[in-house]
Amino acid sequence: MHRSLLSRIRERKGLPKKWQGKFGMKGLRNSMKDEIYFRVDGEIVGKGRPRVTTRGGFARAYTPKRTIDCENRIKSAYLEEYPLGLHWQNKEPLQMVVNIYRDIPKSTPKKLRNEMLLGYVRPVVKPDADNLLKTIADALNGVCYSDDSQIVEITLNKWYAEEPKAEITIREIGKE
What is the CA radius of gyration of the chain? Predict the structure, then answer.
């Protein structure tokens, strides 16, 4: 029963009639915070270019498996923290702050490793910040917000850390 209820909300079909007075969709939306934060463990990969193959004389475009796997991890991390799914449905302008923590290469000397952990040395390596952001924004499209065109302000930082992860904060602009 509980699982069915969450599925209905995610599909935007609403709640059963007997609960609509108490827990109508507007009530759920208004009770949510105007800022969300969640963490994705593991390496974030940049958005891969679409690949094209031909099969039976027809061209077929597909997204690389690494990109799809990363997008699914991001969706799962968001839905684990916010199981009701779609947070912003009404084209509200959003600000996204992303901190990406990259793994320190194993061959790094100890002195340089400490500087990396303190933030004095930052990762100036691929993937590019815009490709990382594209992976995250596309993964949350239709899951956290209606469309990634709602994002009007972006901050992305790349850091080194012991464990790779991403920390994502999204807030509605104009709401304090």
Answer: 19
Nearest CA-CA partner of 138 in 103, 99, 96:
96
For domain 33-172, give the CATH superfamily: Holliday junction resolvase RusA (3.30.1330.70)
Q: Tell how far CA 131 is from the center of its chain.
A: 13
Q: pLDDT tens digits, residue range 81-136? A: 998 877 887 788 999 999 999 999 999 999 999 999 998 999 988 988 999 999 99
H/E run at residue 100:
strand 94-103
Residue at 40: amino acid letter: V
Please state the φ and ψ torsions of residue 96, each to the nearest 5 degrees: -120, 130
Token pair 């993937």 is at which residue? 127
The single-letter code of the amino acid at 4 is S
Residue 135, judged by CB atoms within 10 A of its CB (0-12, 13-18, 19+), counts as buried
pTM: 0.74
Q: What backbone torsions phi and psi does residue 170 show, to the nearest 5 degrees? A: -130, 130
For the chain, the domains span 1-31, 33-172
65-81 and 129-140 helices, crossing angle to 10°: 60
